[in-house]
Design a protein that fits this description.
The chain is an alpha+beta fold. 35% of the residues lie in helices and 29% in strands. A 6-stranded mixed sheet has the order 2-1-6-5-4-3, with helices on one face. Helix 1 runs antiparallel to helix 2.
Amino acid sequence: MKINDAVVIAELMDRQTVYERALMDNDVEVLQSLFWESPHAVRYGITENLYGVDEIRAFRQGRPTVNVARTVTRVEIAAVGDSAGVVNLEFVRPIGGTERAGRQTQFWIRFPEGWKILSSHISLLPGPKSYLDAAAAQIGVPVDAMNRATVSEDLNRIGVVARFLMEFPLSQGQEPAAVFQP
């Protein structure tokens, strides 16, 4: 069995390009045509587990068409023989004003009617820590859930004061003010 035949890799890259274009255009018909028409097709999404072509179709038809844009940052393709392959890719997409990194794996099989996705898995990597969580970890002081809102408000107030004070830079030669000693 030949591994990573250049012709098969090119065919899978073409299928990936078609898939990505259809995903960005929310072209449900093309997306659906790329999946295996079987109750055994599987798609694990970011928030859903879909089993069979009917569940995948229902998801595609009901998916919101807003905020579907993503940028593919890496594609790795492995071909196994001339009729199977795996397409792994990494992507970034804006979610809630923050760039989130994700990944997708698709297992493709060549059927008599062409290449089809047998199984797909999409996931997001954990988002960035909030400033509150990062600061608490840095100084080793846990902030319990009951106090998070208040501590966050206090940090915002400190930020306002700090921004104001930064408007008055002191030169390096400036003597510090005397320390008050009662």
